[in-house]
Please model this.
Amino acid sequence: MQATKLRLNLAVYVIFIACILLAPMFLEEFALNRLAKFLVFGMLGVAIALSWGYAGILNLGQGLFFGLGAYMLGMSLKLASPTSMAQGSDTPVPDFMLWNAEPGSKTDLCCINGGSWLWIPFQNHWFGILMGMVLPTLVAFGLGMVVFRKRIAGVFVSVITLACVLLVRLLIVDAQPLTNGWNGLTDLGILTIGETEFDPYSVTTYYLVAISLSVALILGRLLTETRSGMILQAIRDDYNRARYLGFEVSSFQVFFFCASALIAGYAGMLYVIVAEFASPAFMELSFSITMVVWAAVGGRGSLIGACIGALLINVIETSVSETAALVEAWKVIIGLIFVLVVLFMPQGLAGLASSVTDRVLERFSGRAARLRQADSQQQPAE
Amino acid sequence: MTVAALTLDGLGVAFAGFKAVDGVSIIIEEGELRVVLGANGAGKTTLMDLISGKTRNTSGRVYLYDTDITHWQEHQIARAGIGRKFQIPSVFRELSVRRNLEVASFETPGVFSNLSLRQTAASKRRVEEALELTGLGPQADRLAGGLSHGQTQWLELGMLITQNPKILLLDEPTAGMTQAETRKTTEILNALRGKHTIIVVEHDMAFVREVARRITVMHLGQVLAEGDIKTIEKDERVKQAYLGSKGIM
Model:
């Protein structure tokens, strides 16, 4: 029965990945771009499920990693924008830096303002891409080492992550000359790798996102099937027991916290490519909470469940927002959905699907057993 | 000549001046099953905490065979060969019984060494052995959270067995069990006798009579008496401190 369930689970992954890979055959470019955004959110769902469902770490600041990833690539794309070359300098300079510059300062990244040199390496977009993955992971590593080494658990981790995302958002908003503050990074160039242009409305870009999500899903799922993944779930259930069985509990927590951050950071980069902006709004509390709601509805105990939860809610939200009367009410509706799911479906849609499968399989195996029994009772009579 | 498996040398801890365990020296021989008795607050569980690294001792030393394991981290002590069962049974409730045992049987402590989809043959074999020993085979695919109290205790015991520990620390393994469950626990422990050195903290006298050869009685954080069951029953100080005048019933 366990094997059957694993095969069904595999089938769900295969069908889902096939669906998102075939979508371009049926959608025109505007809808495709929108779907790509949703797939990025689906990736965030995977990141949340990995840390919340598998590791038991409710991160209320996942937007921090998403935002960091977005800003890293956003900086490179800002420098690649035609407007950055049109500021009267030989090297690219972001337009907002000129607007914020002191009169008479040199129009160059080296010294237009105190911190602008930080932008210099981002002229190479590989640096931006690399940092988009390295920085979120490093920040998660530092945060994780402090939190998990100190054996902080449960709601305290949530509060700390929540404080962190708000703190970083404040810093970014405050560093207006360096980050364009509230406005975020807009008017970005298009990511070009070799001959390939990742135009946000192109099929190429859609495939970049869809394949990235597929890889994240498969790698994430494989990770949870390793011995480390099993030990991680054991730690989630009872970290003391795991510790006294001889496991270095904090190393598992830090590792998977980092993995979750890496996925979120990568999703942030994809979002910048698809949506063409990076904004401090990514680090608003409400966005991080929304991610948690996606995972809760889809099922935090399942990577693909959380991913589908994110897609589903966003699809509903989009169709609802086309009805004017419901736009304002949407926040209430989503809040209500969250409360209902927590009360009646604590494992979300994936949990519901799993228990239905259990019941069906049990009925089948029960019938098979009865048939065998009937057979063996008949045999002596023959 | 027998070998000392665990040596406690003047072990003690003080919480804000209160000495919960005070200069306890005990030598436990290899293969022995030692019962630690004592009234509530005598320091039995604290003693277990000190051995397993949950609480840091403020005086004395702990030796596992010839290794000084004083002040080691919990997971290092566990890896050195001391397995601990808690008073409140703790298992991984959202995982299946088999998965619980599998996790316990993994051989390395860190995250990177466990980044593999494979389980070693030795680890699989030990899981099967533990299922057999505890009689949990029929429940192997059920979630551990759905087990009865007795089964949960056996599962936790089974998890320790998969690690093949040199020393088993069992904190009230029969607490809350029915008579039938206690009997089965006795059987399991008797099957383990000799293979592992076992230290049991227990109140249940029927159980103690069944398993004990040597008993250590603790009182107010100190060792009050030590000996076989008859010596302990006759000891005047033990009677006064703990057993009352009626003996071990």
